[in-house]
Amino acid sequence: EAGVAQSPRYKIIEKRQSVAFWCNPISGHATLYWYQQILGQGPKLLIQFQNNGVVDDSQLPKDRFSAERLKGVDSTLKIQPAKLEDSAVYLCASSPPGTSGYNEQFFGPGTRLTVL
Amino acid sequence: QKEVEQNSGPLSVPEGAIASLNCTYSDRGSQSFFWYRQYSGKSPELIMSIYSNGDKEDGRFTAQLNKASQYVSLLIRDSQPSDSATYLCAGDAGADGLTFGKGTHLIIQP
Q1: What tens-digit pLDDT sequence spans chain A (116 residues)?
Q2: B4 CB near a chain A CB, below 8 Å?
């Protein structure tokens, strides 16, 4: 079974530029998550999708971050304009349908973003 | 606010010994808990899930949950150098994504 795919793996941009990340979840996984992991910290949830609807985006900085999941499969996360503090690894995860509350999530390889 | 607390370490354990990793959580609504292993420069890898009070064993790993004390632990028996990594504890209150601790850096000394 193929895992969660993400691209690009690395991205270096200057502050105030824009950037987009792409994620393809494990086949059949209806729920998709974007996390931000700053060096030395645990991942922090940015947004959760159930199919193509947003379940939780309470921690997404909406003035600069946006995300979409068209057709309930692939997802993109965009940052515009980027700030220095956005330097982090952006992780995409997906979870299979199952018993409510049993939320095993599987992570992709991540995109390491450096903002200069 | 939901919080998951872990000692950041490093925790140093001799090869072949038992490594004990601990975590506490603040949200009594959390139903299930997960341990992820993260090697440097890699993404988190799920190694254990636990939903009920008590112990759950899988190979060399045992997860323990005590909901009354809001405490989760992970034991690694017969520790190997390849177990050296950061271990992330995460809790799930049902409808949200996971709340992660900062992770414990484990070093297995040959």
Answers
A1: 689 999 999 999 999 999 999 999 999 898 999 999 999 999 999 999 998 899 989 999 999 999 999 888 999 999 999 999 999 999 999 998 765 546 789 999 999 999 99
A2: yes
The answer to whether the Cβ–Cβ distance between A33 and B97 falls below 8 Å is: yes
Q: Is A18 on the interface with B (CB under 8 A)?
A: no
How far apart are alpha carbons A30 and B86 in whole angstroms?
A: 28
DSSP string, B65-97: EETTTTEEEEEESS--GGG-EEEEEEEE-SSS-
Distance from CA of B5 to the nearest CA of A (A): 10
Lookup result for tokens 């490594």: B19
Nearest CB neighbour to B96, from listed A56, A100, A110:
A56
